[in-house]
Structure formats: C-alpha cells, structure tokens
Design a protein that fits this description.
Structural class: alpha/beta
CATH topology: TIM Barrel
Order of helices and strands: EHEHHEHEHHEEEEEHEHEHHHHEHEHHH
Largest sheet: 8 strands, parallel, barrel
Helix content: 25-40%
Number of strands: 13
Strand content: 5-15%
Shape: globular
CATH superfamily: Luciferase-like domain
Number of helices: 16
C-alpha cells in the first residue's frame, strides 16, 4: 500500500524563523508575527491545504553564542524577539475546524503541575487538536534566565524528562475518571468527588501531592511530538513519542535516524509503524521551471549570513564568529543540541562543510533540503525523499510567509492529491484520530501513558 504523505507547517512565534534576513523581502509578512490576524490567516491557508498541523517551534533564551553576545541575534531577528506559542492556538482554532497544533514547550523550565493544566485547557478549546513537542532545551542563556549558571548536562536532561513524563501522565490520565463530571443540574452536583483522585509523586526531581485541575479533555494526553535525534533523544522518542521531527540536509542523514528510532520502538514493545516521522524540507514552487528558479534566486538575495551563523552557533554551542568562512567545520561535543552539529560533521561522512557553505545552506529554511521547481518536479522529489528515508511526512519550513504555504496549498497539494499520495479530506475526530484512525482519541497500551490511567493507577493515586 502506498504511504500517504503528511504535511506540517514549521513556524515559530517570531520573525523569519529559519530563513534569517528574508523578513526584509517586500512580500514577507512574518514581521507581523505579533498580530493575531497574521496567525489566523496562516491557519486558514494551512487548512485549505489540508495540512495535518502547524508545528510551532519555540526557544526559551537568546542565541548569544555567536560573538559571545546577543547583538547579532537582535540585529538579524534570529529568533528574537520571540513570543509564547501557546497563546496563539485558541485564536487559530477558532477559525479552523481540522488543523492540528503541535506546540513546543521546554520541560526543563515548566513545572509539570501548571503545564498539565495549560495543555488540558488547549485540548478542550481546540476540541482535541493539540499536540506537545517535548524538548529539554539547548541554550545556556535560557538556563541563566531561569536562575541557573548553565543548563543541565545533555543526557541528564533526558533523565529529568522521563520523570516529568511520569508526572504529567499521572495528572492527565489518572486523576479524573471518565465519568467523574456529572453536570447534574437537578441535584446541583457538577463533579463526583469519589471519582477524582489525588496524585502522589515523590521522585528525584519532582514532588507532587495534588489533583489535576482540569476535567478530562478529548485526548487527555496531547499528541506527543519529540524533536531530538541524539542517541539519548532516540531512546526517549522510542519510549514516549507518537510523532518525531528530525532535520538533516540529505536522505543519507535522515534514513539511518528513522531506522534507529523504529528499531528502538520495537525493542520497547511498541509498533514502530505507529511512530510518525516528519523531516524538515523547504520547497519553492513555480508554475514553470523558470519561474521557480527566478523565485529562488530572488529569495537568496535577502539571506543574512550573519543571521544564519547566529542560529547555527546557538544550535551547536559553537561560536562560528571565530571561524574563517572557508574553514572546515569539525565536530565539537558539548552540552548544546547534538543533532545540529552531527548534521554538518559526522552524519554524512562523504560531505565536508565549510562555514560559508553552512551559512548559505541554513539561510533558507534551516538545515533541511531545499527543493525548487514546478509542482510536478517537487512532487517527484517529495515522493523520492519519502521512499529513500521512510519518513511519513514533512515539516515544511518557509522562505516567505505566508507565500510559501500558499504556494504549497495551491500548487503542490493538488499535484500530490492527483497522484493519490495526499488525503482528499480530513478524517473526523481529534488530532490523534486524524493521524492514527477512528477510535484512537486517547493513548492505548503499550504506550506508557496508558499504564497511569484509572483504575490502573487507583492504588498509587489515592
């Protein structure tokens, strides 16, 4: 059976996101990121294109590794200023009926008790269309903003994350029984207290003695995304993730990561085919090859190389301002994100990157591939990418917003639909049901969240 190709839009509540400098293009509207009308328009464009979701990145902290200063990030709007992504969701949900929302929240700096309530609130208000991209952070500037000298060591962050997941699973799945809320007007009883259970948790990193503050939402646990593909990140994904986002410049880089996570998932007792893999890509479309090539050349004139290296410095923890532009990039191991450095050093042994090449590549859409051409040519490339990597879909970055997504909705989606590779209509139900099928609104065994659902947790919760 031919695999259906899925699309997420990859954006962030900031300017330009991963195309530094392109906010200066006269057709780009991403500098209007702080207006609701920008986001509601984008949501309607994505739903027109039957995108599965809008995947909202986020970072808590500023990219101050480049030049040991935030100045380059501020000059180039390199993901600063950046606003809270969760506050966008209700407005976009109000103007759409099917689009999902995957929101990045850094658990290292989010206490689980209030965070669980915020996600339950959004699951209610979106009628079950919310997802959470679980990240542990990678910037020392974020740690300093939260009162620490530096961030916790990379693998230790995932140990904390495992316990964090246990706490939120207990709150989402085990605190309220499905029939706890009565809404009984005649007797004046809204909730049956006997069916709401206290969660006790006393762990190495978190202590909790409380009931969850929200009644059961359509999905209880939001759809779980995860974006780390380091060895420790893969273990975490195999245990918890329903969708995995990865970035890399070539199929040679992506395919082994997909295979590794699927193998680990199988070893964890999960069905590896039910972990949906999304890789990053940017597509630039024209009705003719000449039009697409001209559009790409036009976009490239607006790239900020300093902005691109500012982003890359933040992702890798390496100060690229100290490198000569024609210097080869060599691997450095530190406590920042591991995947971004691997992408330009070890992941593809046949490719050697100079600093200049990194700046040019990252300048449009980040570290993922850029595909340019007619709808037919781009569709060919997308199909080939899916076959070569075994991903289930793409997180589509933009060069210009909303232009890139309008082109995808109006040009690429009809071509993929004609080929039978893209859904003709949304499936009914929650985001989890749209992704995995009817009757799948809530997580089921063997996913670990199901083990915390009442009555399985009754003895521990009371």
């Amino acid at each position: 059976m031919t695999k259906e190709i899925r699309f997420n839009a990859f954006a962030m509540n900031c300017v330009a996101h991963q195309s530094p400098g392109l906010w200066t293009h006269p057709r780009d509207r991403s500098s209007e990121y702080n207006r609701l009308s920008y986001w509601t328009h984008l949501a309607k464009v994505l739903e027109r294109g039957r995108f599965d979701g809008l995947f909202l990145a986020d970072v808590l902290g500023v990219y101050d590794v480049f030049g040991n200063s935030p100045d380059a990030a501020l000059r180039n709007a390199a993901q600063v200023p950046v606003n809270d992504p969760l506050l966008l969701v209700s407005a976009m949900a109000a103007v759409t009926g099917n689009l999902g929302f995957g929101v990045t929240c850094t658990l290292s700096y989010e206490p689980p008790y209030p965070f669980a309530r915020r996600m339950s609130t959004l699951d209610h208000l979106t009628e079950g269309r919310i997802g959470w991209n679980i990240v542990t952070g990678y910037l020392d500037s974020a740690a300093r903003g939260m009162g620490k000298d530096k961030q916790t060591a990379h693998d230790d962050r995932y140990d904390v994350a495992d316990e964090y997941m246990e706490v939120v699973y207990k709150l989402w799945e085990g605190s309220w029984q499905d029939d706890a809320v009565l809404r009984d007007r005649a007797r004046g009883i809204f909730t049956d207290p006997a069916k709401v259970h206290r969660v006790h948790h006393d762990g190495a990193n978190y202590r909790l003695n409380a009931i969850h503050l929200s009644e059961p939402s359509p999905q209880r646990t939001p759809v779980l995304y995860q974006a780390g593909t380091s060895p420790r990140g893969r273990q975490f994904a195999a245990q918890h993730a329903e969708c995995v986002f990865m970035s890399g410049p070539s199929a040679k880089v992506i395919a082994p990561r997909v295979a590794a996570i699927r193998k680990l998932a199988a070893e964890a007792g999960r069905n590896p085919a039910e972990i949906l893999m999304f890789s990053m890509m940017t597509v630039i479309l024209g009705r003719t090859e000449a039009e697409a090539a001209a559009k790409y050349a036009d976009y490239r004139r607006y790239i900020s190389h300093e902005g691109a290296l500012t982003l890359m410095s933040g992702w890798t923890g390496v100060d690229f301002s100290t490198y000569d532009l024609d210097q080869e990039v060599r691997h450095v191991l530190n406590e920042a994100g591991r995947t971004a450095m691997d992408n330009i050093t070890r992941a593809d042994p046949d490719r050697v990157w100079t600093v200049r090449e990194v700046a040019e590549h990252v300048g449009i859409g980040g570290i993922g591939p850029v595909v340019v051409g007619t709808p037919e040519k781009v569709a060919d490339a997308v199909e080939a990418w899916v076959e070569q990597t075994d991903v289930d879909g793409l997180n589509l970055a933009f060069a210009l917003s909303p232009e890139s997504y309008e082109d995808i909705a109006d040009l690429l989606v009809p071509e993929l639909t004609r080929r039978g590779r893209y859904k003709e209509a949304y499936r009914p139900g929650t985001l989890r049901e749209k992704l995995f099928g009817a009757g799948r609104a809530r997580l089921a065994a063997p996913h670990p969240a199901a083990g915390y659902r009442y009555p399985a947790t009754a003895a521990a919760a009371e």
